[in-house]
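Standup, Tuesday
Yesterday: got the pipeline producing structure tokens again.
Today: sanity-check two examples.
Blockers: none.

Example 1:
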Amino acid sequence: MSQSVPQIYVQVKEFIYASLKFSESLHRSWTEIDDMLRKSTNLLLTRTLSGCLQNLIKKPHIGLTELVQIIINTTHLEQACKYLEDFITNITNISPETVHTTRLYGLSTFKDARHAAEGEIYTKLNQKIDEFIQLADYDWGMPESDGQASGYLMDLINFLRSTFQVFTHLPNNCNDHAAMSGKVAQTACMSACKHLSTSLMQMLLDCELKQISMGAVQQFNLDVIQCELFASSEPVPGFQGDTLQLAFIDLRQLLDLFMVWDWSTYLADYGQPTSKYLRVNPSTALALLEKVYRGMKDTSKKNNIFSQFRKNDRDKQKLIETVVKQLRSLVNGMSQHS
């Protein structure tokens, strides 16, 4: 915990002392004073302190590390509520065991703040991923891949690794906080992988991207492989089997279909629960195939060998045209069914 935790605790105790002095001047019974102290302390926690924490969490300059620190601090403040209740009991001498007393709402206050910090972590993590994605500079017409993953993607993965190291500092030594810290780290990691996968898919299918070379597909495949390696490296402990890798399964099956050029299998097994390409939607496959086909034709035209392409690769061209027709038929069938 940071120094703010004992400072906040001291401030709350001083507030309780001040409330006690005020209450004594009202000539109330100790039972009434005890109730007043607890209710006023509840207002301090649920309004003032809760509002301060919520405002802090939403400040733009608060980063991932600070949000993790807030989670740690609120965990300790939540535990401290028991001692505040004991403190009030000691100064009023009204035991909760003999008289029904108002309980402090600190537990819910700090849980709410912690949940808000967790949600902000997921949001900011996805925002950082978006910033890296914006640095992507693919040459969509490249004749062949570079043979290694793109620089922006490796920088992104290194950022994610270092970020999830921060989560090892979450509290894990009290009550259910071990489960809590693991849940936050796992949810953040899964959220990041899903967001990255979705962003890469959107990049590949961007309607403004009209054509793609097979070399660019190969380069993209190398980048997705690095994403899968990251997911399989257990950046956050606690995932069962290949749960994290499944975040990239849609991309993997789509890219495999193009890398292997396995259209006969895809079309033959479409709709079967055991299909090798079960996660590949026909509309997605069609959109990418049309981009690749336009890329092939454009490359041939630039090299002035399109006529030769038609002569030497007529079978492949006819195959693509046939597959496009069949995919369109599947897409139209899905639309009519809907």
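Example 2:
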Amino acid sequence: MSKWPLSEPMRRALALAAEAATVGEVPVGAVVVKDGAVVGEGYNLTRAEHDPTAHAEIVAIRRAAEALGDERLIGCDLYVTLEPCAMCAGAISHARIARLYYGASDPKGGAVEHGARVFDQAQCLHRPEVYDGLGENEAAEVLRSFFAERRQGT
């Protein structure tokens, strides 16, 4: 059982992660919400776009910024299925995301509660409120299944 009840934006992020898996991308999904409405969403597109920066969070932030016509996503919440890496945490800070909700922790590549702990650094210009463990079991299972299939060669 997850730490928090599964919200509709996290359900959508999980659906996006599952969609990413079907096209061979690492299954991470992200949704940006402002005033209860989805303003940007995405999943990992690094392979499809040959772009190492096309992580789910970056894709969703870019789409939200475009939809809102502003690079500052003040008052927005970001729901993502996996703990953001250092690059994504930096983008979250620069975008001025108000609240970050993420599912599974990532001890290897995460940079919020693990590794660089970007938001804890004195140089961090903006620190969102962080809520971890939202849909963590579901998010972890999507990732486990994806990598298990890859190891089996299917």
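Quick observation on example 2: Residues 36 and 51 are 30 Å apart (CA to CA). The mean pLDDT is 95.
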